[in-house]
Amino acid sequence: xxxxxxxxxxxxxxxxxxxxxxxxxxxxxxxxxxxxxxxxxxxxxxxxxxxxxxxxxxxxxxxxxxxxxxxxxxxxxxxxxxxxxxxxxxxxxxxxxxxxxxxxxxxxxxxxxxxxxxxxxxxxxxxxxxxxxxxxxxxxxxxxxxxxxxxxxxxxxxxxxxxxxxxxxxxxxxxxxxxxxxxxxxxxxxxxxxxxxxxxxxxxxxxxxxxxxxxxxxxxxxxxxxxxxxxxxxxxxxxxxxxxxxxxxxxxxxxxxxxxxxxx
Length: 264
Hints:
Layout: H1 3-33, H2 43-51, H3 54-85, H4 89-102, H5 110-119, H6 126-149, H7 155-162, H8 167-175, H9 180-195, H10 201-204, H11 213-224, H12 228-260
Helix pairs in contact: 1-12, 2-12, 3-6, 3-9, 3-11, 4-6, 6-9, 6-12, 7-8, 9-12, 11-12
């Protein structure tokens, strides 16, 4: 077989796989935006808003996700900077500890974490939830950022140090502006994971006033599970922030992921 024929087969297979992957989304959109007569309508969304306080859950998720991502980027960038620039034994131990933590599912720690959260008054606290979700995401984020920083020439900082720049100035003025691609990778991977997190928040956010989208959606599905048009509309509302984040950050996503996944 010729090379052109194989390339053609390869492309046809990719198109078919893409179409298969799109089927659930096409069904979701049809159920949400069309009625039984196949007419376009927004009534499903208005009905969801009348029956389900989705905006309160939406706000809780937004506050917790933004807060957790800010904490995550701040702490992991400092940790990654120290690990990549100060190659001492302690930092290596911390780095490999982070790698080890990446292999442990967060749900395994639920019982001891619940005791800790209970002791510090963190149950039904959005602030406590921010720190908890940021801590769960730190091993991967630190691994990615440390690898990305290792590819940034240290000569840039050495030149700034000669001009009298302190460590904080070198980090904030030279390194930090260069971390945009890897930051976007962390925001897309971990931020969307925090937005969709259910395994942890189900234990710690028991009050309806602080429940996030995944928890509220579960209760909504239990109540209106047979009404597929409402479920589809609620699902689309819940996935909008994740979709927007990926659309605007995807051009930085692969460059940050590729550079950060290989430690120089």
